[in-house]
Amino acid sequence: MKHFATAIALGTLLVTPAFAQDQAMVSYATELEYDDVTFGLESAITDRGLVVDHISHVGEMLERTRVDVGSEVVLFDRADVYSFCSAKLSRQVMEADPMNITFCPYDIFVAQRPGEDSVTIGFRSFPEGEMQIIQNLLDEIAREAIEE
To answer: What pTM was estimated for this model as a whole?
Structure first.
């Protein structure tokens, strides 16, 4: 999240793709409110007939355990990870290579850092080949979540 690509203005929405140096992550920054991004994400997932299996409240866990682990650093104001799966696409990628089970379920995170107005949404990158189907799906969902 430290390195952001060139900003793209979409109406009044600022969407900035960010890529880790090793390309292990795809993320977008937006000026939308956190709750609007999570609502957009849930809608983008369920509108495709997919079901959110789990929401991991990573930000709450990190804050709750911060003192216990001896840290004074507040990492996020809010941070959640949404997990879901597509039976059709999962079968497709696992028929190509059963070890693609490693990547299931699929996760998209939403996070807001302390003192920042922007909210970041993103996901892990997937390897070349059959898993690019899933990467494209997650990219579509993440982008749709932050459209106005």
So the answer is: 0.84
